[in-house]
């Protein structure tokens, strides 16, 4: 029997497929690799559909000739999508987010912490592999957008670093 694929190879494969999904602007990608003898890996990646901004208010109907025009209410500001913020750190894969290295331990970072580029912010577990998510830049943690032990999708915002 041939050796099963290495976990590092699987992680590299998942990351390569995620890059193909992103670079080709695909909504979904499903790939199968391996064989019955060597072990099969089926991977399905799907982009998270982001909610669009609140629809603009409809224009007010024309005022009747004998009545004064009523002012239209101001438009409500669009709901802020954390993924659109300049300091958003997004998930590079589908998995489960863990804010600490082990249950009961202190979180890697919390709001207000200063972080260095490359510092571990959290872990995303995918296919029983713990993937440390590094800070893409030095800055301060402004928001933590996920809860511990919650599932995350590819591209989902995890934290905001400014």
Automatic annotation (TrEMBL):
Q: Which UniProt keywords apply?
A: Biotin, Fatty acid biosynthesis, Fatty acid metabolism, Ligase, Lipid biosynthesis, Lipid metabolism
GO molecular function, one example?
acetyl-CoA carboxylase activity
The Pro residues compositionally biased stretches are 58-76
The Lipoyl-binding domain, residue ranges? 86-162
Disordered: annotated span: 31-96
Gene Ontology process terms (BP) = fatty acid biosynthetic process
Question: What top-level branch of life does the organism fall under?
Answer: Bacteria
Q: Which Pfam families match?
A: Biotin_lipoyl
Q: Which PANTHER family match?
A: OXALOACETATE DECARBOXYLASE ALPHA CHAIN
Question: What is the documented function of this protein?
Answer: This protein is a component of the acetyl coenzyme A carboxylase complex; first, biotin carboxylase catalyzes the carboxylation of the carrier protein and then the transcarboxylase transfers the carboxyl group to form malonyl-CoA.
Record's protein name: Biotin carboxyl carrier protein of acetyl-CoA carboxylase
